[in-house]
Structure formats: C-alpha cells, structure tokens
Amino acid sequence: MTFHRSFSANRVLRAATLTLGAAAMTAATLAWSPADARSAPESFADLTEKLTPAVVNISTAQTVSGGSGVPLPEFPPGSPFEEYFEEFLERHGGNQQSRRVQSLGSGFVIDPEGLVVTNNHVVEDADEVTVTFSDGETLDAEVLGRDPKTDLALLKVSADRQLPFVRFGDSDALRVGDWVMAIGNPFGLGGTVTAGILSARDRDINAGPYDAFLQTDASINRGNSGGPLFNMDGEVMGVNTAIISPTGGSIGIGFSIPAKTAVSVIEQLKEFGETRRGWLGVRIQTVTEDLAEGLGLEDAKGALVAGIQEGGPAVGSGIEAGDVIVRFDDQPVEKMRDLPRIVADTTVGKEVDVVVLRDGEEQTYQVTLGRLEEADGTAEASSTPRTPEENETLGLSLSSLNDVLRSQYDVADDVDGVLVVAVVPGSQAAEKRVRPGDVIVKVAQETVSSAEDVEEQVARAKSEGLKSVLLQISRGGETSFVALRVEGS
C-alpha cells in the first residue's frame, strides 16, 4: 500500500501495511437492539451551506532550479560522451534554468481576523501563498508558523471584513462509525463536499513521531490536504493530510490529524511562530512479549527506557535504563508510541510524576521537563587479550573488554561489560541483529564483566524455568534491550 499526501503535488510517504484485527463479540454487542441505531442524515445540504464559506483553496508557487529547455542528445548506455556533455552544460550554466512550480491544497479559517489552518506540506518551501474563498475573493497569505512533525501550518490573511470561520471540536468524543464530512479542493475543484464515517482511530502510518490519525472513508484526494473533516455539528474533528492509494486517487482510506493534536500545535504557532514541546530526555523502545517476560512483567505494555540522554531532564531523577514507564503526568502509557505524544503535549518546565516498573514494583520519580529542540527534528578490564568464549545458547562469542579490544571495536572508555566478538550465522542473536562490537552491559538486569558472568546468568534463568533472558546492549554510546531464548525452552 502506498501513502500519498493528499495535495496536488505527488509526495509519497513510506509504504506500510495496515491490518485490522477481528473484534470479539461482547455482551454489550449482544445487548444492542435496532432501537439504539441513529438514522443517516437526510441531507448534508444545510451543513454544507453553513460551513463552505470558511473553507478555502490554497495555491502556492516556488522557484526551483531545473533542467534547461535543451534536451540531452541520446547516447548509448554508459557512453562517456553523455558524462562529458552534462559536465559541459553544468560548467556553462546550460542546465540551471529556474522555473516556477505551483501546487494546490486546502485550508480553513479558524478566526474572523484571518487565521487559516492548513498542512505544512502544502506551503513548505513556497515563495508565494494565495488563499481563495468560495465567493472568489483571493488574498495573499503570510505563513505564521509551520510544524513538520505534525504536518500543520498556520497562515494569516488580511481582509477588510470579518471572515467566516469554523471551530475545532472534541475529536476524542468522535466514535468509530459516526458520520463525518470533508470539504476541500481536490484536483483544483474547490468547494468539493464528500461524506463518510469515521473508520478507525489512532492510526500510525509512519508519517512522524506523533502519529495518531483519524481514518475515514470520506473521499479525500490530492488537493484535499489541509482541509477540514467535520462532525455533524459542524465542528472540525481533523485536518485531512494523507491517503492510502496505489494510484494516487481515493480508495476510501484517508487520514486526518485529530483536532486534539491540532489545537495545541496551532495555539503554539499562533503565540510563538513555532512549537515548544516537552522533553523528558530518555530513549525508549517497544515492550515486546519476549522483553516483557525477560523483565518479569505480566503484560507487554508501557515504554521501555533504553537509555538516559546526556544532559537531559531525566538525568539524576532516579529513572534508569531497564525501567518501564507506565504512567506519565497521571496519564497511562499503554504503548511505547503513546509516550512521545504525551510528553510533547506537556508544558515545558512542568514538574511531572513518572511511574515506572522496576523489578516488578511500581516506583514514582519527579522530572522537570525541558524543551525539545526542533533541531533534534529531539570496571577496569585486564589489558591482556583473552580468547573469546562461545556461548552456544545465545549464539555469541564473548570476551572481557581490554584496551586492545576497546581500540579495535571503538568502545568508549566509560562503557563496561562483555564484548560480542562474533555472532553465529542463523542464530537467534543474529536474527535479533546483535553484532560484533556490541557490549553486553547487563544480563537479566545484573551487571556482567566477563563471559563467565553471562554464562552464570543464563544458567540461573534456566534453573528458574524462564523461557528467555534479557540483555542490555551498548552500541555506539546508546543502549537497547534484546530478549534471547535460553536452552531447553
């Protein structure tokens, strides 16, 4: 499946496969009766008439350097003359003619004084931005601020009248199956209205670090980007931004940025011209089933702390690598990707409670959040070399660290543990992408400094009937966790 940003320029997101799990029948489902159903709207006409004046078409233009109007002569593949001809044109400026590129998108007015919301990718790199209203009035727009991470932008137009506008609503109150309506400028056809339902919530399409899209089957195409997705009360539930499509046209799978996400970003763009997100200063990874077992957790939930960022707010707070964050500022962290969104939405400088699971017990630490900079995008060893010892269970050849090996594998002086010298091809360690040069810092949450220490912890895991053992690994100054099965599991 291919993701397309839904504006007229053909910008493609990374491919992703989405699978829908089958929902189990519950007692509540069995108790449902036809009397609970709501009829479909007889018409969307009244709502359309009310909302359309606040929805705008956005056109942008930018100057780019491209090829001249002079085509290259045709040469046989690999011919040296092709390279010589290209060099000649570049040296004499023959291939550097500038040209104007135009794109189309959508937007909507959220303030009678002329504030307009759209997508970042609609106005990114634009030299000129023009807003056209449903009555044909055209105004030049100023970009007040952009946020690439959520794909939102805020524009300002100046008019000699109070402009029609719409308001954001509570996107959390929108339920799967509720009616929604989109208005936008697909393929330059301004004022196009489509309707459908909310198909799903909290979709992660790998568009950015804060993905939690609303999914709809209301028709969204190129040019709809930045347009509003309304509920039946005329409130903006989302900002249309992307579609799944093998052809670039609508197949009934579109995505909108939830109003809950958009409101906080737009307020910051309005006040500061940029976003100011909270920063915890930890590196995290997903808690998988095997990692959960290695950590002694009943459920695979939360965000596993893989490391503490140097100079970050979490330094000295008591939070450690190997902790699993399950609550942040009194909000549950069910999945790893929940945490970045919650932290980002929290006020910079606020002291928050962070609840972690450590050794099966909950512990609470206080952290004063820093600001996520948008530039981020955010034991002594013997000096005598030793023969590596192979651990057949894990599929690793291991050695204690020494000066020679530190230099050979570029291991920092402040990293202590057991060096992975070789990985058996086809072993479970190879499947988990453990590689030579990695340093095993802890096994089963116990510090190790020799191959014997690793063997001891693996043997202990076996004796306790565990199916896997948890390794904390350091690579290039960063740590992560890997769970490997133990022999006999």
Describe this structure as you would to a colleague.
The chain has 489 residues and is α+β, with helices and mostly antiparallel strands. The longest helix has 14 residues, at 259-272. The strands form five sheets. Strands 23, 24, 25, 26, 27, 28 and 29 form a seven-stranded antiparallel sheet that branches. A six-stranded antiparallel beta barrel has the order 9-10-11-14-13-12. A six-stranded antiparallel beta barrel has the order 3-4-5-8-7-6. A hairpin with a 3-residue loop joins strand 4 and strand 5 (115-118). It has helices at residues 27-30, 45-51, 80-91, 120-123, 259-272, 289-295, 338-344, 403-409, 428-431, 451-463; strands at 3-5, 12-13, 55-65, 98-111, 115-118, 128-132, 138-147, 152-157, 179-184, 192-203, 213-216, 228-230, 236-244, 254-258, 277-279, 282-286, 303-308, 324-328, 331-332, 351-358, 361-368, 370-372, 389-391, 396-400, 418-423, 439-443, 446-447, 468-475, 478-485. 40% of the residues are buried. It is elongated, with a radius of gyration of 28 Å.
Main β-sheet: number of strands, strand sense, barrel status?
A: 7 strands, antiparallel
The name of the CATH topology of the largest domain is Thrombin, subunit H
Tell me, rounded to a whole number, the average pLDDT. 80
Rg over CA atoms: 28 Å
Would you report the number of β strands?
Answer: 29
Task: Give the terminus-to-terminus CA distance.
Answer: 38 Å
Shape: elongated
CATH uppermost class of the largest domain: Mainly Beta
Number of helices: 10
Instruction: Provide the domain count.
Output: 3
